[in-house]
C-alpha cells in the first residue's frame, strides 16, 4: 500500500464524507448523485470493474478491518485518491446501513455516449421502458452482459443504472455493456428501425408470437423491448413495435419477472 492516502476518520460530520451521507435515501440520492456528477460503487469487485472500465474514483470508504483484505484493491488506486477508514459504528451512522461488502467508492459519473455510438456496432439491443426498480434494472444489465447483448437503451423515465443498488446487483457489468438514454420516447424507435433494427416487444398481448417460434429465423438486427413491472409496456411503445413476443409458460403461470423474462429472451435470441 505504498503511496496510499489512508485517512482515519472519527467524525461523520466531516464535509469530505458528504458523498457517503444517507446512502439508503433513494429519493434524495437520485437527485444528489447526478447533480454532483458522481455515483457510488459498492464492494471490491464492483469497484475493480469500474476501475477496469477507466472510471475515476473520487474517494473510497471502508471499515478498518477491511484494509488488509483489500490491500490489492488499494494498491491499484491512484495515490492521490483518499481512502477513508473508520469503525463500523461510525460508517453505519454515516451511510445508514452496515457496510458488510468491504468498501464503497464515490466515483466520477462517466458521460453518456450518443445513441449512435451504442447502436452503430450492435446487432442485438435491449430497450428498457420506464423501469423504476433498481434491482430488476441491475439484473437486466447482468443478463445482458452474460448473454452477449451488444447494448442497453434506457428510456428517460427509467431508474438510474448507476444508482448504488443497480450497480451492485449488476455486479459491475453496467460498466461493461454500452448503454445510454434513448429519447425522445418512443419516437426514437423510428431511428432504430431506419438503421435496420426489428423492434420486438415482450408483452402478453393478444395475438403475440411465441418466442420459440420467432427464434427459428431471427433478423440480422434485433432490439428487444421490455417494460416495467405491473403495467408492462406502454400502449405507445407497443404501437411502435414490429412484433410482439410472448414466453410460453406452464402450470398456470402467466408471466415472469421482467429481469427473468429479459434473460430468457437474451438466451433464446443469441446467435
Write up what this structure looks like:
- This protein is α/β, with parallel strands linked by helices.
- It has two domains: 5-108, Ribosomal protein L30/S12 (60s Ribosomal Protein L30, Chain: A); 115-268, Alpha/beta knot (3-Layer(aba) Sandwich), CATH 3.40.1280.10.
- Helix content is 31%, strand content 20%.
- The protein contains eleven helices and twelve strands.
- It has helices at 26-36, 44-52, 71-75, 88-95, 115-119, 134-146, 164-169, 189-194, 211-214, 235-240, 258-268, and strands at 5-8, 38-42, 57-63, 82-86, 103-108, 124-128, 151-154, 179-181, 198-202, 209-210, 222-226, 243-246.
- It has a seven-stranded parallel sheet with strand order 8-7-6-11-9-12-10. A five-stranded mixed sheet has the order 1-4-3-5-2.
- Strand 6 (124-128), helix 6 and strand 7 form a beta-alpha-beta unit.
- Helix 6 (134-146) runs parallel beside helix 11 (258-268).
- It is elongated.
- The termini are far apart.
Task: Give the strand content.
Answer: 15-25%
Domain unit count: 2
CATH top level of the largest domain? Alpha Beta
Task: Tell me the Rg in angstroms.
Answer: 21 Å
Going by CATH, the homologous superfamily of the largest domain would be SPOUT methyltransferase, trefoil knot domain
In CATH, the topology of the largest domain is named: Alpha/beta knot
Amino acid at each position: 500500500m505504498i503511496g496510499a492516502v489512508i485517512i482515519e476518520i472519527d467524525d461523520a460530520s466531516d464535509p469530505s464524507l458528504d458523498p457517503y451521507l444517507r446512502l439508503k435515501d433513494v429519493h434524495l440520492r437520485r437527485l444528489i448523485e447526478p447533480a454532483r456528477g458522481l455515483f457510488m460503487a459498492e464492494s471490491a469487485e464492483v469497484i475493480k470493474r469500474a476501475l477496469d472500465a477507466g472510471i475515476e474514483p473520487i474517494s473510497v470508504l471502508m471499515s478498518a478491518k477491511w484494509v488488509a483484505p483489500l490491500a490489492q484493491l488499494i494498491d491499484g488506486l491512484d495515490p492521490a485518491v483518499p481512502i477513508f477508514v473508520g469503525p463500523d459504528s461510525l460508517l453505519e451512522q454515516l451511510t445508514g446501513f452496515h457496510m458488510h461488502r468491504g468498501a464503497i467508492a464515490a466515483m466520477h459519473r462517466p458521460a453518456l455516449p450518443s445513441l449512435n455510438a451504442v447502436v452503430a456496432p450492435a446487432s442485438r439491443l435491449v430497450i428498457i421502458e420506464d423501469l423504476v426498480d433498481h434491482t430488476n434494472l441491475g439484473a437486466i444489465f447482468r443478463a445482458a452482459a452474460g448473454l452477449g447483448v451488444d447494448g442497453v437503451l434506457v428510456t428517460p423515465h427509467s431508474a438510474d443504472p448507476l444508482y448504488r443498488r443497480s450497480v451492485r446487483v449488476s455486479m459491475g457489468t453496467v460498466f461493461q455493456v454500452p448503454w445510454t438514454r434513448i429519447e425522445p420516447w418512443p419516437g426514437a424507435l423510428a431511428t432504430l428501425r431506419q438503421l435496420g433494427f426489428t423492434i420486438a416487444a415482450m408483452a402478453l398481448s393478444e395475438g403475440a408470437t411465441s418466442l420459440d417460434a420467432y427464434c427459428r429465423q431471427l433478423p440480422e438486427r434485433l432490439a428487444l423491448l421490455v417494460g416495467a413491472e405491473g403495467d408492462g409496456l406502454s400502449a405507445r411503445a407497443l404501437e411502435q413495435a414490429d412484433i410482439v413476443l410472448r414466453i410460453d409458460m406452464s402450470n398456470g403461470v402467466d408471466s415472469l419477472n421482467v429481469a427473468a423474462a429479459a434473460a430468457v429472451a437474451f438466451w433464446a435470441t443469441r446467435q
